[in-house]
Design brief:
Blueprint: H1 3-18, E1 25-29, H2 34-48, E2 52-58, E3 73-77, H3 83-100, H4 105-131, H5 134-143, E4 147-151, H6 157-164, E5 168-172, H7 179-184, H8 207-239, H9 245-249, E6 254-257, E7 273-275, H10 289-304, E8 312-315, E9 328-331, H11 336-340
Parallel strand pairs: 1-2, 1-4, 2-3, 4-5, 5-6, 6-7, 8-9
Helix pairs in contact: 1-2, 3-4, 4-8
Length: about 350
């Protein structure tokens, strides 16, 4: 889905509440690293459409830099964890997760769940610091936002949306075992023909593979019922009424899934789940002069010779291999989108 269509969806969501033709005020709760990079593309497009975007971040945020986005407002609240400690913590968990991917499904899954639990404990503390900050909450209420846009992988946004009494829109790629989509978004995922994410099973499963998929499903269901108890208690205290994390998440008006629908296994969908794969794609820009000359010279060489030699532009930053061929050029950085926008270029 293009960026224009994505903006239209959000605009339609906003107009349901404050009338057509008027730009809205969007409160954003992003995540770090690739999650923020994806979210930033959406925010920049919303700004070009005239919407007022405010990003709520903690003082420990890593990539979310207000100095690099002058068209977006930022609201920062103090966190007990320092930026350095938070960054080291996430790097440690990412390294641990990558190493676990080399092992069996159960080892990988168990490690992923432990990592998820550690991350959620940190964000639970940060969320408590945000909602207990009276100055911050007063300012957010007085700002009269029209919608909350957030990454669903980590809770807190749904609590703020509930406390501010405004609609919520989620952005998500997927969650372990599709647990968030299933329990929070009420998305049906029949284990008889919908393989659990990370299981490496196909949609055409044998009987034993279906049994295995059912075991995976029960494992994720059981685990998430345990970890969300902390959030259930916190949400009940914060809202002053009995509730749960997934009940609060279930009030989201729209789920924007960052993938193409045809890349997913066939499964039932709900009207408020929208696939937005490709929203980050942009038209190719002119190549840097040095790289452009190289690409043109390759084209001339191919047209003047009968042989079809493969020419390689390699993004590589390290010691030059002794066996490097004469048809290969090394670059510390390559604008892949711009390069692939040219004809007769392939990426491997």
């Amino acid at each position: 889905m293009s960026v224009k269509w994505l903006s239209l969806l959000l605009l339609l969501q906003l107009t349901c509440y404050f009338g057509s033709g008027r730009c809205g005020k969007v409160l954003v709760l992003p995540m770090e690293y690739s999650h923020w990079i994806n979210m930033k593309i959406i925010l920049e497009e919303l700004v070009t459409k005239g919407h007022e975007v405010t990003v709520l971040k903690s003082s420990a945020a890593i990539l979310i830099d207000p100095n690099k986005l002058c068209t977006i407002k930022f609201e920062t609240f103090p966190a007990s964890i320092s930026q350095e400690d938070f960054e080291n913590f996430l790097k440690y968990l990412i390294k641990k997760w990558i190493q676990a991917a080399k092992h069996s499904f159960w080892t990988h899954t168990s490690t992923t769940q432990n990592i998820f639990s550690e991350v959620l404990d940190v964000f639970l503390k940060t969320c408590k610091e945000a909602v207990s900050n009276k100055r911050l909450m007063t300012k957010l209420r007085e700002s009269r936002f029209d919608v909350v846009l957030a990454d669903a992988v980590v809770p807190c946004s749904e609590l703020l949306a509930e406390m501010l009494n405004i609609p919520l829109v989620y952005s998500l790629r997927f969650s372990p075992g599709y647990a968030i989509e299933k329990f929070g978004g009420k998305l049906p995922l029949p284990p008889s023909y919908v393989p659990v994410v990370m299981s490496e099973l196909k949609d055409h499963m044998t009987f034993m593979e279906r049994v295995k998929n059912m075991m995976y499903t029960l494992y994720f269901d059981f685990y998430f019922q345990i970890y969300d108890k902390k959030w259930d208690r916190f949400y009940t205290e914060a809202l002053g009424k009995p509730t749960t994390l997934f009940v609060t998440m279930g009030k989201a008006y729209m789920w924007l899934i960052r993938n193409y629908w045809d890349f997913e296994f066939p499964r039932p969908l709900l009207p408020n789940f929208e696939f937005i794969g490709g929203f980050h794609c942009k038209p190719a820009k002119p190549l840097p002069k040095k790289l452009s000359c190289k690409v043109k010279s390759v084209g001339q060489l191919d047209s003047n010779t009968q042989c079809h030699r493969l020419h390689v532009l390699w993004r590589y930053d390290g010691k030059i291999p002794d066996t490097l061929g004469s048809n290969t050029r090394l670059y510390k950085w390559i604008p892949q989108n711009d390069l692939l926008g040219k004809t007769r270029k392939n990426k491997y």
